[in-house]
Amino acid sequence: MMMKFSSLLTTFVLLAPSVTFGTGTGSRVALYNDPNDLPTEEYDFIVVGAGTAGNVIATRLSEDPTRSVLVIEAGVDDTDVLPIHVPFLAFDNIGAKVDWNYTTVPQKELNNRQITVPRGFTLGGSSSINLMIWTRGSRDLWDHYANVTGDSGWSWDPMEKYWNKASVPPPNDPTLSNGNGPLLVTLPNFPSELDGKVINASKLLQQENGADSRFKYTVDINTGDSLGFAYMQELTGHGERYSSARGYLHPALNSKRPNLYVLIQTRATRLLQGMNVTSDIPYFNQVEVAQSADGRRFKFRARNEIILSSGAIGTPQLLLLSGVGPKEELEGLGIDVVADRPAVGKNLREHPMLITIYEVNSTKTSDDVTRSPALKQQLLEQWENNRTGLFANTAGSALGFVRLPDDQLEGIQDSASGPNAPHVELLYADSFLPVLGKQPATGNYITVANIVVAPKSVGSLTLESTHGDTFTQPLIDYNIYGDSFDVQAMLQVANDSETFFSTAPWTEDNFIVSLVGRNSTSIGATEEERIAFLKDNTITIFHPVGTASMGSKDEDVTDARLRVRGLKGVRVVDASVFRISRLSRPPTGP
Ligand SMILES: Cc1cc2nc3c(=O)[nH]c(=O)nc-3n(C[C@H](O)[C@H](O)[C@H](O)COP(=O)(O)OP(=O)(O)OC[C@H]3O[C@@H](n4cnc5c(N)ncnc54)[C@H](O)[C@@H]3O)c2cc1C
Ligand SMILES: *[C@@H]1O[C@H](CO)[C@@H](O)[C@H](O)[C@H]1NC(C)=O
Ligand SMILES: *[C@@H]1O[C@H](CO)[C@@H](O)[C@H](O)[C@H]1NC(C)=O
Ligand SMILES: *[C@@H]1O[C@H](CO)[C@@H](O)[C@H](O)[C@H]1NC(C)=O
Ligand SMILES: *[C@@H]1O[C@H](CO)[C@@H](O)[C@H](O)[C@H]1NC(C)=O
Ligand SMILES: *[C@@H]1O[C@H](CO)[C@@H](O)[C@H](O)[C@H]1NC(C)=O
Ligand SMILES: *[C@@H]1O[C@H](CO)[C@@H](O)[C@H](O)[C@H]1NC(C)=O
Ligand SMILES: *[C@@H]1O[C@H](CO)[C@@H](O)[C@H](O)[C@H]1NC(C)=O
Ligand SMILES: *[C@@H]1O[C@H](CO)[C@@H](O)[C@H](O)[C@H]1NC(C)=O
Q1: How far is the CA of 359 from the centre of ligand 8 (A)?
Q2: Across 244-258, 263-277, 389-403, least confident range
Q3: 66: exposed, middle or buried (Cβ count in 10 Å: 0-12, 13-18, 19+)
Q4: How many other C-beta atoms can be found within 10 angstroms of the C-beta atom of residue 130?
Q5: Average of pLDDT values for 278-306?
Q6: What is the rounded distance in angstroms from the CA atom of residue 258 to the CA atom of residue 48?
């Protein structure tokens, strides 16, 4: 099993008992933490999951004072959880009380290692624990969604206005894609020496190879053309994390909206069919909830609709437990089949991430900070004081999106969503990230995340035979490297990283000293060695999608308006709907 991220937080709690989180985001008064306290059992809409998507839809729906909205969230209040709000401490949330702590089943192609699957267990969901990188994706990706749903409303042009409704760049970054929403997006608050080198290397490679350099530099990755290297755009405006709770839910609760009810520390356990409704197809209008596995069950009714926003793990689990899924699979588990929907839990996609760590000839990385309680304390006080300094920044601030070389795609179906969409993402952090091993006691390091963002491997989510309810973890199988295309793509990424590091910004002053792999000091010389290195040093980058995917065909779980097919009363609005498979693009080349 993979080791857990080390916890810096313990040190802070011990060192800084007087530190309080004082941004005024708190709204405890309007939160319910006991189902008994809710004034009524019936609401117009019930939103299951106060995560990234759920908070947006719940607050937008409740702008109309005639609609009542109940939000049910399994996790805890985010208000006083310091590492949620301090950008630099984001990794401390993984494996902590705000994480669901899922793991995959043993991954065959990763030497049977089990990979951790962090998911936010708090208001804001995974937007409260993620790395805050704000990317809209490519024009090709959204046009692909339009294609698979048969609904042009999903394509880039009409979608752009919704991006603009979500985020706003700060006035000091006029170059960025604009908008006027509640999420404060910013360029890095505290860029490092490393970030400057990444940008300089891409500019250099562009000078050498021309405008179509695979490593070109770009100012704004959010224009629809997402290829190139750039400073990240981050949800860290004013030096704080802008989760969907910070941007949407808390402001609505603070304004004392009387028609918005938020119940926390309570899990939806099943959807139930209406008692008094007549319908030609199954009609769900009740949500059963509980606060513990053997605790009392409560039921809440939705007059209008149940909206699932429990995420790519939680949503398919809830559908399966409610009898919506592959008929034979459900029968085998002894669950009454309400609707035979074979694709529920299938089409699971995740991005493999190869971690390469290098010792560097520099004293400017943040390794010395993460090793020193005194320095951490000082930086935390600075952040408390005026939201500046290293702690106002995420772990890394430069990234690249790259396509595989054309010759690698000849004769095979391209896995990217279009000819201008990336296959590869590269992220850089200026310290030893303890994701595969412990930070050494001395030395300065950089961590590179080499990611395949257009993988072909398809996994699945199923229920354990003694499936219990949503208090039992489902079986998550990402099937990492199950398709050999992904191994070939990752080999190419590893080579790309080596090409990148052979340029002047890295070779001058011998910046890169040596590779620190888990069990080796080189990626390897032969392909066999390199594949062995990949298998030993790959984890994933927390982007599961597809388990309740949308599309125009009957086999798809939801239609283009995200209503679950074969049912009435239920819609899915989270990352489960993103449909990556069934690419319609034919193979290119001879
Ligand atoms: C560590 C990490 C780093 C990441 N970094 C980035 C990044 O930098 N940039 C980026 O764009 N993406 C990043 N991602 C991915 C991104 O955060 C997710 O894709 C996105 O947040 C998913 O949103 P969602 O609404 O589908 O689900 P979530 O935001 O996970 O929301 C689901 C919510 O439902 C709740 N829930 C689940 N089951 C139940 C139930 N039965 N009853 C009640 N409530 C339930 C959960 O507690 C949660 O609050 C990262 C993810 C992680 C975990
Ligand atoms: C995840 O693990 C942490 C640390 O053990 C724990 O506090 C938390 O409650 C766990 N999350 C869930 C959903 O059980
Ligand atoms: C989707 O793309 C395919 C192949 O390019 C095309 O034939 C088809 O008409 C498209 N479908 C829609 C609904 O746009
Ligand atoms: C990047 O290049 C610029 C211009 O040559 C230079 O001033 C700067 O120091 C370089 N940055 C780093 C981190 O090397
Ligand atoms: C069904 O209708 C009866 C009579 O109108 C009502 O008392 C009861 O609450 C309804 N039950 C549900 C689950 O809606
Ligand atoms: C923020 O506070 C620190 C001390 O904690 C100080 O050194 C720094 O100058 C302040 N920055 C601004 C922009 O006020
Ligand atoms: C990557 O580099 C290795 C070693 O230099 C080489 O054998 C291999 O062919 C390269 N692979 C690709 C896909 O370029
Ligand atoms: C480290 O960098 C310095 C310049 O910053 C250089 O003088 C020195 O030779 C480098 N050390 C090594 C081991 O390459
Ligand atoms: C690599 O090292 C880890 C311990 O750091 C060990 O658990 C693992 O089995 C090793 N893997 C291989 C392929 O040698």
Answers
A1: 13
A2: 263-277
A3: exposed
A4: 21
A5: 95
A6: 19
pLDDT classification of 585: cutoffs 50, 70, 90: very low
Q: What's the CA gap between 230 and 458, in Å, rounded?
A: 30
Residue ID of nearest Cα to ligand 7 atom 12: 492
Closest residue to atom 4 of ligand 5, CA basis: 276
Q: What single letter denotes the amino acid at residue 10?
A: T
> What six digits make up the tokens of 455?
């993988």
Residue partners of 416: CB distance under 8 A and separation at least 6: 140, 403, 422, 423, 454
- Residue 539 phi, psi dihedral angles, 5° rounding: -125, -150
> How many residues comprise the chain?
590
Burial class (CB in 10 A: 0-12, 13-18, 19+), 136: buried
Ligand 4 neighbours (beta carbon < 6 A) = 193, 196-197, 200, 505
Closest CA to 403 of 578, 225, 276: 225
d(CA 241, CA 82): 10
Rounded distance from Cα 8 to ligand 2 centre (Å): 16
List Cα–Cα distances, 132 to 74, 168, 187, 223, in angstroms.
22, 14, 11, 18
Backbone angles phi, psi at 172, to 5 degrees: -85, 0
Nearest to 83, CA basis, from 95, 91, 75: 91
Beta-carbon contacts of 229 under 8 Å, excluding residues fewer than 6 positions away, are: 198, 199, 201, 202, 215, 216, 217, 218, 398, 399, 400, 426
Mean pLDDT of the region 478-491:
97
* C-alpha distance across the termini of the chain, in Å: 44
Distance CA 421, CA 417 (A): 6
**Ligand 5 pocket mutation pick from 275, 277, 299 by most atoms within 8 angstroms of CB:** 275
Q: Is 278 in the pocket of ligand 5 (CB under 6 A)?
A: no
Burial code of 34-46, b = ≥16 C-beta within 10 A, e = fewer?
A: ebeeeeeeebbbb
Task: Give all strands (DSSP E) within 336-397, no chain letters.
Answer: 339-340, 352-360
* Residue 147 Cβ contacting ligand 3 at under 6 Å: yes
Q: Which atom of ligand 3 is nearest to the CA of 150?
A: 13
Q: In the numeric block, which tokens belong to residue 366?
A: 């943040």
